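Cross-posted from the bioinformatics board.
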Amino acid sequence: MSDVSLVVNGRKVSGSVEDRTLLVHFLRENLGLTGTHVGCDTSQCGACVVHVDGKAVKSCTMLAVQASGSEVVTIEGLANGAELHPVQAAFKEHHGLQCGFCTPGMIMAATDMIRRHPEGLDEATVRAELEGNICRCTGYHNIVKAVLAASKTMAKSKGKAKAKAA
Amino acid sequence: MYSLNYHRASSVADAVKLQKKGEDAKFVSGGMTLIPAMKSRLAAPSDLVDLAHIAEMKGIKVSGKTVTIGGGTTHAEVASDAKLKAVCPALTYLASHIGDPHVRHKGTIGGSIANNDPAADYPAAMLALGATIITNKREIAADKFFTGLFETALKDGEIVTGVSFTAPAQAAYEKFRNPASRYAIVGVFVAKGKDGVRVAVTGAGDEGVFRAHGMEKALTKAFAPASLEGLAIPAGSLMSDMHASAEYRSSLITVMAKRAVAKASA
């Protein structure tokens, strides 16, 4: 057993876990944050994607003890109260989901992708970047539309914030 | 996953000490291969010594044509390093095509090399670049490092702390990926340096990564795709599985090598 302490969605949390506990299980079972899903359990599908220290990782392929001391953001940490994150809003607007199982991972992957591409995104880049996220409904078309729309919205609001600051 | 004891190392010396304590302790870096293997119980180390927090094992140094990459540097960091891209774009391209974005945030060059998966990308690059693998004990030429399927020259308690190489004048990597797993069915790294051309093949050899000496000779004479016309690695020494027969892999090696040469010359 080891003690782990993390900051999850801005909140300090700690717990005592078996060393073999996966981060995803710590999030779901110890913290009750069941928005992060386990899909394939073989590190391929991306339903478990969360951000650890600002980077998208597969929480089913990382031990909770490995993440100790890190900051973690899950799908529950994106919205600002009742106001959806622009990526969440875009998935809703463009119906970027069918059954919804892959959606938390898709959205966490998309926010990471947008952060890494401040120059903007095109369809080919979004499709290539979604390599680590599988949608079994094969609903990629609207997912891609949603990511592109969110990227544009976020670039605009960033521009506005800059204009205000100036 | 079987039960295990986790230890976080703060330095290379600390990691060596921690590894000695465990009955069957393994080093873990990004864990992108080891953790899945442990989940499926194909690997069951008694202890894991985490190398991910060792600052001395991270970072990329480019000085003229000399490149040094810390063993703990992630694929994403290699892929996005502007200085490295300027002297060896073939390697940043290779790194940007390992796994997927989330895997690249965790997986490291040292881990990939130490694991020597027969379909891993980095071993081909190390071999073709004539790289030196740096460990906590010695320096090993890539030609002597990769010794078989998941086998390397590493001894117990030895850690890949970094790699170094001289950036080649021209180089490129081309891989034909399994459409589902995205692992290389065949990957070919071609590098033209001052001592001639080196060609290394991953994904295909039944003993893991290997150099294609016949192709190297032909390309050293004339560095053009046409030089590879009629040259093929015999199927007898290649892997055959549900994804591709040895004959198909043999054919793919020549095609990927030609594409790599064309790309390196462009």
